[in-house]
Specification:
With about 140 residues, this protein is mainly α. The chain has helices at about 5-10, 15-20, 25-35, 40-50, 55-60, 65-75, 80-105, 110-140. The chain is elongated, with a radius of gyration of 30 Å.
Length: about 140
């Protein structure tokens, strides 16, 4: 069932008020909320816009989607210089994160090398055991 009733109540809005906003009758809103009729896509869009949520949220999507939509709307409302600055800040953050990861790898290079070598040796020992078992199996059959 759609979250129309939940959103409407959270905004202290009556069914009549919502019906006027999206241009349908009170009975239609009642039917939408009860799930007895399907909501046309154009009405879903109006409801989602009115409550500032996504259409997937109306169908049970996560609350985080509202935040993502708000962030996109805020970003869209910025002028081009502010958008470029936000993008630049994000790129700097990603660049710094990459440096931090590289530094961690460098600091642990010996440990990584030892672990890799140990894993290789264990796999060689395992292969030797398998080869030995295969030889014994051949001898028993022959």
């Amino acid at each position: 069932m759609l979250k129309i009733k939940e959103l409407r109540r959270a905004k202290n809005q009556s069914q009549t008020e919502l019906s006027e906003v999206i241009g349908v009758s009170l009975r239609t809103i009642q039917n939408y909320e009860s799930g007895s009729v399907d909501v046309p896509i154009n009405k879903l869009k109006k409801i989602a816009q009115h409550y500032d949520v996504t259409i997937p949220y109306l169908f049970g999507g996560k609350k985080e989607e509202i935040k993502e939509v708000q962030e996109i709307k805020e970003f869209d409302s910025l002028n081009i210089d502010k958008k470029l600055n936000k993008i630049y800040d994000l790129l700097e953050f990603l660049k710094d994160s990459g440096k931090e990861t590289k530094n961690k790898i460098e600091a642990n290079r010996d440990l990584i090398s030892q672990t890799s070598r140990s894993m290789f040796e264990q796999s060689m020992n395992f292969q030797e055991v398998l080869d030995e078992l295969e030889e014994k199996k051949k001898r028993l059959k022959g």
